[in-house]
Amino acid sequence: MAWKGLALLVVAWLGAEKAWCDSSDRVRQRPNIVWLTSEDNGPHMGCYGDSYAVTPRLDALASRGIIFARCWSNAPVCAPARTTIIAGMYATSLGAEHMRSFVPMPRGVLMAPQYLRKAGYYCTNNRKEDYNLEKPGQVWDESSGRAHWRNAPEGAPFFAVFNSTVSHESQIRKKGHQLVHDPSKVRVPAYHPDTPIVRHDWAQYYDKVTEMDARLGKRLDELAAAGHMEDTIIFYYGDHGSGMPRSKRWPYNSGLQVPLIVYIPKKFAHLRPNDYRAGGVSERLVAFVDLFPTVLSLAGIRPPEHMQGRAFLGPYAAPPKKYLFGYRGRMDERYDMVRSVTDGRFVYIRNYMPHKIYGQYLDYMFQTPTTQQWHDLYHAGKLRPPQTYFWEPKPSEELYDLEADPDEVHNLALDSQYADKKAELRRALRDWMLEVRDTGFLPEAELHRRRGNDSPYDMAHDESRYPLRQILEAA
Prior knowledge:
The protein is α/β, with parallel strands linked by helices. It contains 14 helices and 13 strands.
């Protein structure tokens, strides 16, 4: 009997050890995930078909992975865009759409890296945060210029973010730069005046995108040198459209479309979408609100119900979206309220403050030579449409066909031929605003007064404090 009891103990111990090992193996088999991010650049890259761009390192990554043809940053400026990412929720729903605002998170809601950390991931951010939200406790294992996946405990999967600032708006106007790109070969958008200054700024922007490519290439070299390329899923994306005026800060496609490359190594082929082909292009509509739900899915974690984004990869991938949404609130010292929606081809824009011109004076934006000259030429009467539009009051509605008009200068909103499409997108936008309880109709001071000790999100879900349907009818 003693021997039988001992045998049962050994079997039980072996079973427990196997279960522990299986669990440990599952943790080890989770992919490492790295985000390479850059600032203020749209899809001006070779892999997106831009022959003027020089981006060999990211083009090479795209040749091994997949690019998403239509990814929107939801907000066309850094803080609300990054707020949308870190929460997996729309900044307009959180009361956090305004540039460098600061509000509490909804009750019981964590920032996305906290869910990864709970699941055993070592999470680092190097280094920009710029969230419009109060942190609900420790978000990252480390967030600094020293943060690196190399510091992860042995055997722990890691999630690491590396951000490059070299393509930021401030670098377009950096004096003393010697151009590498030939300004005579720049494609000047239809809304900009074609002048040497404008061409110089665009050429310098492309130079900075090339520098960004090289810097992020070094991060890829680090992964390769450590033997991690085949156990790491890599994302690359820009944080919103280019830093040139009427891209950054504007919820047109020009301000919202960003490059998104995803590389999934063969080891994790089961996590690839059906349309994944090396060097391939996905037409699926994706946005920043979807990024962290997707990372959680890839890590084997079901995205929390409060997240408004939808995973587009991994076991918890949701069906493709029909629309993407964008928003503009206060930009630095100037107020505005604009919402936009796209189905991938058409962009519909609703201007809730049409009396305000597009090009309101923002000190930071007016430091760019293109902005200064564009403004001066308009007021000197030396421009013709569509270069004049930016300095004039806005129509209440705009509609653009990206296939026929990629610069979004031919407004189809009053064209009866497109009445059905306008009605469809107008309805989709309204339904979305109601669904997420868009807080943008409240001035900031009133938002804070009404919320009291609650978050704006929690306040906005109380119909007695925020009768959104009635407000929308009036708007």
